[in-house]
Design goal:
- The chain has about 200 residues and is mostly helical.
- The chain has one domain (about 5-175): Four Helix Bundle (Hemerythrin (Met), subunit A) (Up-down Bundle).
- Helix content is about 55%, strand content about 5%.
- The protein is built from six helices and two strands; from the N terminus they run αααααββα.
- The protein has a two-stranded antiparallel sheet.
- The radius of gyration is 25 Å and the shape is globular.
- The chain starts with a helix and ends in a 27-residue tail after the last helix.
């Protein structure tokens, strides 16, 4: 996997790896409209699949999309997200990337495996497009318009880091807090009596 994506995968994996399946289903504050850990990861995975499907279409057709120009808004969004790494807060997810309510509960390790598997599959298609189409804009993002291979990787890295912050917030609210270890000096140790040093005769 490309280093740009591998770095994001590692950071997300470090957050979710130790979680059990019960914890990954919990919603912050018990509010169903707030995504659980699994829903955040599934959203990312669905984004990889959507991109992969788009890339596969271009590879099967053997040509680039006819729509290869950007609107003013798309140019601005590319500048904001791809150049400055800023993804605006509160932007609704695409319908295709909304996690489904009925699903199999997965623990953190399973979520990490799923994320890596889908990210690797998408990255392989990006490599194929790079070999076939060079530095052309290979496929079109619904909001950002047509993107080159390196821009697709940059988008998914910024998007992943955006949701990494969300994951950290969710985990902080739903994961069991470790019980603090209390130490008390009363009665736990006895005072040692050190015999007085006697001068040698």
């Amino acid at each position: 996997m490309h280093a740009v994506l591998e770095r994001v995968a590692c950071q997300i994996a470090n957050e979710v790896r130790g979680l059990d399946a019960e914890t990954t289903q919990l919603h912050p504050g018990g509010l169903a409209y707030k995504w659980s850990v699994q829903e955040v990861v599934e959203h990312l995975v669905l984004g990889y699949r959507l991109t992969a499907n788009n890339l596969e279409t271009r590879l099967k057709k053997g040509r680039l999309s006819r729509k290869r120009t950007r609107t003013g808004l798309q140019w601005s969004l590319q500048l904001m997200i791809l150049s400055f790494g800023y993804l605006p807060q509160g932007v609704p997810a695409l319908d295709e990337t909304m996690p489904a309510p009925a699903r199999l509960a997965m623990d953190g390790q399973q979520l990490e495996d799923l994320l890596r598997r889908e990210m690797t599959a998408m990255d392989a298609l990006l490599d194929s497009c790079r070999h076939k189409f060079g530095i052309e804009r290979v496929a079109t993002h619904p909001w950002l318009g047509p993107l080159r291979v390196d821009q697709w990787r940059r988008f998914h890295a910024v998007h992943g880091l955006h949701h990494l912050t969300q994951l950290q917030s969710v985990i902080a609210q739903v994961a069991a807090k470790p019980v603090p270890v209390r130490t008390s000096s009363s009665g736990s140790t006895k005072k040692l009596r050190i015999p007085a040093h006697r001068p040698l005769a």
